[in-house]
User: What shape does this take?
Amino acid sequence: MIVSDETRPPVSITRAGLSQEEAEIRLRKFGPNELAEDRPPNPLSTLVTVFKEPMFLLLIAALSVYLFLGEIHEAATMAVFVCFVVGITFVQEWRTEKTIQALKDLSAPKATVLRGGERRRIPTREVVPGDILVLEEGERIAADGRLLEVADLAVDESVLTGESEPVWKEAASDTGRDGSRNDDTGELWRHDLCYAGTMVVQGQGLAEVVATGAATQYGRIAKALKEVEDRPTPLQIKIRHLVKGTAWLGLLLCLLVVIVTLARGTGWVNSVIAGITLAMAMIPEEFPVVLTVFLALGAWRLGQNRALIRKTPAVETLGSATVLCVDKTGTLTLNQMTVRGAYFRGRDWQSDDPEFPRTARELLELGVLACETEPYDPMEKALHDMARRSGCAPESIYEGRDFVHEYPFTPANKMMGHIWQRRAAARPAGDAEPAALLAVKGAPETVLPLCHLTPDERDEINAAVLRLARQGWRVLAFAKAEGVTVPFAANISDYTLTFVGLMALADPPRPGVREAVATCRQAGVRVVMITGDHAVTAQAIGREIGLARWERVLTGADIERMSDAELAEAVRQTDIFARVIPQHKLRIVRSLRQNGDITAMTGDGVNDAPALKEADIGIAMGRRGTEVARQAADMILLDDNFTTIVHSVEDGRRIYDNIRKAIAYIMIIHIPIAALALLVPALQLPLLLLPVHIVLLELLIDPTCSIVFEAAPPEENVMARPPRPPQEPLVNRGMVAQILLQGATVLLAALLPYMHLLNSGASVELARTVAFTTLVLSNIGLVLVNGSETQFALQGLIRGKNKARLWVNGLTLVALIGIVYVPFLQKMFATAPLNLTQAGWAVGLAMAATFWWELVKAARRWSRRSRRG
Assistant: This one.
């Protein structure tokens, strides 16, 4: 039963509060009760930041080259990417401002205060320190305050603490408590204080305001959020280094070509054009295309799997994560209390024991009678659900009974009771008076002293309580008093109760979480639980889901006593953090990052926003998360499920692997193109590649690197290897060797037959056709052999998972056949038809130039098996 306002003891409003004149003085002194306004970011400084990006400079350089050569279509394409980069940067600048605005919007627009002895409804921004706030059900609290009077006051503080269970408040004593947030009891969230932004869910109260605006806990979070700066992701840093190196190499080769051609007597104009042509072949303008397309399509794929990406680089960053910091409630668990165990008739029971419903019917019925008929409390809902699943429908239990009296729960007595009276038709024959039953539930330490028990019985029950509590379960004791008569006693403690049993409740792990944690351990990713719940509860969940070091728990009080250096060392060996507050979460994330970890952090409340932004990737909850957390995060889980994060880590690794494959492919295919543009004139041979050929090759390269490799499936061992080291370059030494060797073999496969045919007296058109056909077929071969580092090309073709590869390669073959055999295309591309022998040579040369890499794969596979054996 919900206690009505008429039956609840009212708050006595006997305090006058501030005068209007004093309130105005304090408003001028302390300022309005709102978060401080910041000046909007300077657009000029934002543009300067954009111009410092090497990726942007590369796009500008490519745009300038295309404009110089009159390639309007290519220039327009580059211009689109330039605008895209500028737009993304401006959007990122707005993110912090939107987060702060979301914080402000959560504040109550109006507040009820006592001014001059009268109740007044004023705008929240006019509340000042010293005001007396009137707290009522359904209202959001306007400022931090010290509670003066309370009447069954319960407050939802989940936006600050992350825990959904309402907090029962108590009035501060006249002495000894000054409203400060920490006292010698070590409490981090005080029961005699109320906090701005939290919601009154039951009861009434009066509070003296002790902090407003930026001085509140709310304001501190906003300040911490502003102090956290956006950082480039590991992939962005690596791309910058790669682009810088490639651009410098292209510039040096361009100058070299200009100098060489000038030395041979060529004019300035032709020398510069030759240098620019080589630069076009060298400048990897596909790099920004690859990065943009891969991350955008990766974000789309994750969105299909219930993970919404707000910041596209986070797609790849998640794949490099070494630590996943996750909330317990709702992420690792269902956020739904259930009955897990019980103690009844001298023995322990598991809730899934098939004998429990039949044997413990008395306990289940009493549990329902001690609850509200329409429960709101999660534990009462769990008791109703357990009874219904056991065949004791609450409706049938209430049938034939009338509710006549309630003893409400209070923080002092930690128990509640309902008195039920049988209706005349439901009474046993011969009963003259209605039989009344008092059903009581509450904390064992308050219920058991009221029960008639022998010392041995009491010891046995206390031992059962301890056994259940050690599993991290919340234990409730149930007792009854039969034959209760009118007038009813003033308090439950006036009755002698009969003990009935214990029931233990907990928020169970989500299905699949234990397997997902095991997958993370196999992949070398630590899972760290950070919660505001008690250490014992967190430890029990950690053990149940398989955390590596569930025995060790670090609490908020422990963190308070540690220096930054001590905490950085402690987080190396700790996987569970309990009873933490926002500042602790931020320190934990910073310590992990200080140790070199790539950290992903989940959160749902306002309290999580600074830590979400500080982490390498912040993950907000979509269902229960606040708007502030969503705005501060890089990714939003639409189903609030930990297993979705693990699947996203796998996809992030797939994306990074495929980006590396695409970049390697780009560099490999550019080696023969650039070398042919440089060597053929140097050898005084007729031009092999005309501008139309280079344009066609670029048309083949762009969809191949941006679509075909993006769609490649993950490697078989993608979640069976540790995360890559953060300092590992995007293109390592092994890849450099692969790029040079594969690029050189393709170059030789195209150049040598070209020279041979010319020396044999063949026409330039025929020699060009054989060389160009070999180059295009080698492009297809590179896509096949480099599509997987562990799988052979033939396996990939048979399984056919990459539909994009089939389409792009198929269209490439159709285009090549048209260029070689269609007359008007022959004239456009300066080619000649090939006979069967010549076409066979081109196919054989292309296969020899590319499929030799399959032997390298076979050798690597044999080496791995030898090491495992």
